[in-house]
Here is the input.
Amino acid sequence: MSLFITNATGFVGANLANHFLSEDRKLFVLTRAKSDAEAELRLEKALGFASVETKTKKGEAITCKGDITKPYFGFSDKKLSKIKKQGVKELWHSAGSVSFSKKQKESTFLINCEGMRNVIDFASYVGVDEFHYISTAFAEGNAIAISLTNKKLENFNNPYEESKNMSEKLLLDWAKQNPKVKIFIYRPSIIIGDSKSGRAFNFSAYYRYVQVFHYLREMFDSGRRVIPGVVGSDGELCLPISVPGAYKSEVNMITIDYALEIIMAIKKRGQGGIYPIVNMQPTTYGWLMEKTTRFFKIKGIKINDSGSTGLDRDLQKIESMFARGIGDYYPYISQIFRWDMSPTFEILGESFVHNSKIDTAILYRVLRYAVANNFNLKV
Here is the structure.
């Protein structure tokens, strides 16, 4: 049975694609590109970067150059008919914008919501039996959040959460009109690299956050030291500054291999539903900050929403740079989210396995891989 997958050039999508190829499946892969040749190149590159390694890709991946924001992805009638004749009964939708920026709200909604409408129309046309959607654990916004600061919580923290919420509603509304189609909505939390290798690409979310530390460390190691005297004899960079957030906030991260394991286990059960996939042993922001700064050999940073006082101008600039870099991610380092895991527990029963706690070894494995690739493996 053939399947159709959107954005197999993305981090999650590429891992899904490699998994299906190892199962000898035939894949039609929607890929954004200027030409068919570019589409094939992007897919090949993504599959090579993916954490799921397939020594023998038994299946077949057919690239379909298209745009998710266009009706039927901009496919010709001939191409649509050809795909339909292949008996595509399973659709995996992993494409989407992950931008938190309010300035990019229009673009985010176009990709995530209008894109969902277009995927639904395509699914209706080819006649799928199963629709699998990779959403986010944060699709409910602050309905499941507890603030650890005095800041008032809005319904959603950013356009990303709101658009994911809307896209889920669009899919569920369509499902009511198509009761024979099984709808699977997976809600993973923050996904990081492979637990064993650290492999990842298209670095976003937590990676964007720690890039600030990487940038500073690189700047000083290369001799471009704009603050004289802050590097000790032990090589540690001392930055007596404050960064926003709440020490006891929980940063819920899962590894890509765990996310894929749970998704496939749920799929195997064959019962549609909405399934949160989160870490039941989340790290605290305080712990994460401590381990991350230690990895980059930086000390002196404290978590304090009020900022520092008495800093010289250069340190003030660095503190402001951190605040700007962290700004979009502030809700996830100042709140605690509580998910109802009962749907996931019930569907998997005794076979449910917890994600390993993100300990120092896993975290540093993930960071070493990102640093070794300069946070710049893109497709």
